[in-house]
Write a sequence for this structure.
């Protein structure tokens, strides 16, 4: 039986968040948080009581999973937000209030719709950062079909059209690339 890595072996959220410079007191939007909040809860731990993490997903059952875990673990700085990244003002978070937006394994949305980059830009403060992580284009035995994957170069092109600048690119794990972009002033 082949070994299939999960959790930290596949993506080490703490290590990846440190690549983006996440600090105590910051406000984070995990855009596409999923049911388990693999990045939501490590981010909540890092930002601490003075910080805030918005767990954003279009699936209400995913948000219910986040809410349940937050209750069980007594995490009080996570707020769930139903949102649609592919619509203007589709995420109910005030303009310019987020220090770090996370997009993990949702690069296909950004490639498909320019509304995604506009919505991320709206949420971020000037100088705020986007941390994008997704599957490497070369296929392994897991993950999405290689034809459906988005390269870090293509992701950077999508966001640089909307006044973002690439800060760094890094290896986010054996199967993932990572990219940190910064929102420039208008």
């Amino acid at each position: 039986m082949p070994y299939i890595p999960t959790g930290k072996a596949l993506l080490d959220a703490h290590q990846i968040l440190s690549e983006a410079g996440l600090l105590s007191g910051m406000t984070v939007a995990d855009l596409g948080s999923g049911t388990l909040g693999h990045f939501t809860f490590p981010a909540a731990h890092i930002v601490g009581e003075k910080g805030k993490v918005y767990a954003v997903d279009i699936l209400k059952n995913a948000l219910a999973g986040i809410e349940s875990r937050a209750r069980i673990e007594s995490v009080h700085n996570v707020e769930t937000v139903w949102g649609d990244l592919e619509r203007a003002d589709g995420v109910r978070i005030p303009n310019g209030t987020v220090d770090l937006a996370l997009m993990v394994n949702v690069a296909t949305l950004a490639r498909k719709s320019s509304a995604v980059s506009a919505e991320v830009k709206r949420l971020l403060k000037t100088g705020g950062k986007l941390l994008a992580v997704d599957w490497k284009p070369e296929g392994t035995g897991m993950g999405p079909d290689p034809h459906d994957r988005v390269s870090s170069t293509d992701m950077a092109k999508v966001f640089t059209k909307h006044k973002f600048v690439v800060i760094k690119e890094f290896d986010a794990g054996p199967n993932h690339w990572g990219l940190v972009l910064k929102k420039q002033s208008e």
DSSP finds seven helices and seven strands in the chain. The first strand starts at residue 27 and ends at 31. The beta strands are 27-31, 52-57, 78-82, 98-104, 124-135, 164-171, 176-183. The radius of gyration is 15 Å.
